[in-house]
Amino acid sequence: MKNLSSIFVVPAAIAAALLLSAASAQKGGMACCGGAMTNLSPGDKAVPAKQLKDKQTASILINGGYIPGQISVKQGKPVELTFTGGKNLGCGGTVVFRSLKISKDVAVGKSVVIKFTPQTKGEIPFTCSMGMLQGKVIVN
Ligand SMILES: [Cu+2]
Question: Distance, CA 128 to ligand 1 centroid (Å)?
């Protein structure tokens, strides 16, 4: 029986590895997020940050992607983004704003707040540690 089970397990592992490498090759990136991630792109709708008196805030769930994947903010006003780790966090547990030199870790069920003040209009991308999960802050 021991021999029989190993005969079945090995081909299954090879098939899974082939599927994973094929999926990552299609996206042209590294396999840091594995096959579990479903929402790798930021989507096409920006959600406006909540405007408070002296800051603007938004909450983003990391669960197979960023939900929402795009947040619009106003130039020159402090931004506070709360990232929360969902069950399907994967390597999304590190949030990187490369252009702002910000990198913070978050665990499943926990939150981390990232603060900055956008000085120029345009887009500020954020990613997972290896750049597969992508989101952006749009500064208006
Ligand atoms: Cu990743």
Answer: 5
pLDDT tens-place string over residues 40-92: 566 678 999 999 999 999 999 999 999 999 999 999 999 999 999 999 998 89
Helix (H, G, I), strand (E, B) or coil at 55: coil
If you measure from the C-alpha of residue 58 to the centroid of ligand 1, how many angstroms do you get, rounded to a whole number?
22
Domain 47-139, second-level architecture: Sandwich (2.60)
Distance in Å, CA 49 to ligand 1 centroid: 25
Dist. CA 96 → ligand 1 center (Å): 11
Contacts of 10 (CB under 8 A, 6+ apart): none
User: Is pLDDT of 124 > 60?
Assistant: yes
Separation of CA 99 and ligand 1 centre (Å) = 18
